[in-house]
Amino acid sequence: MRSGKRAAKLTAVHPAESRPAVDLDDLNNRLGYFVRRVQVWVFQDFIRRLSGVDLSPAQFSVLVVIGANAGLSQSALAATLGIERARLVRLLHGLEQRALTQRLDDADDGRRHALHLTRDGRKLLTRAKALAAEHEAALKEKLGPERYRMMFEAARGF
Amino acid sequence: MRSGKRAAKLTAVHPAESRPAVDLDDLNNRLGYFVRRVQVWVFQDFIRRLSGVDLSPAQFSVLVVIGANAGLSQSALAATLGIERARLVRLLHGLEQRALTQRLDDADDGRRHALHLTRDGRKLLTRAKALAAEHEAALKEKLGPERYRMMFEAARGF
Prior knowledge:
The structure is a homodimer.
Chain A: H1 4-9, H2 31-49, H3 57-68, H4 74-81, H5 85-97, E1 101-104, E2 114-117, H6 119-143, H7 145-155
Helix pairs in contact in A: 2-6, 3-6, 6-7
């Protein structure tokens, strides 16, 4: 797996000539450092591509999960996305003010604040999902197909 | 590479029983979503482990790179770490106030604001590097060795 032949097949993300000749020292052995670099690139590209629908990565994730789980509770949404409750409340408030989501009390099964997309929310989500797919294609191109596949295999389900 | 046999060897990061039964929909096919989840875990663990030396991940990276490249310019440091200039100036100001780094004018070769660690900076960095190594071991344990190796091979050099 870690043979020279395998390593040589991977396309360098940054050509050597474009990198400053600075010693990264211990950072070369810190996965978190490179994960952070990937994540910064992802956010910058994602935010740029989704600027037309004015959704942050977190807002997009919230809309996707509510869209696929109508009636979801705030606590289940917070647990699923790993978002702190206070931050999620602010996020949902913003989406409600734009009339993209709504919180309905569900008297039948005792759930409070069951979350739903509005009609506008569903329409915007359809556009946003198409832009997110373009972002994903750009990330795959940036990494190259082999790095992309490996990183996804390693990160999936985290 | 993507055979069932290979996939079965990977240890699940979250056992199925601990995950809420919520449909992630498109997020399941978005690498950026999982990279973000890894990065959030990394920051939380890193910040906790380095709380004794009161260094953020960005401050740690800055100290490491200055430590390995005495006399580095601010612009080279910003380019190396992918930090915006304005943010780097704030970061360096905080480190200088704690007397961990200093900016010296270097008249000989025309470089301005050549960056150096102070003696206290070098001492703190030694402690911080040891804590960062413990964080790295925790990340490897969290991912499992095979996922860790794959993710590093994919992300290295980004």
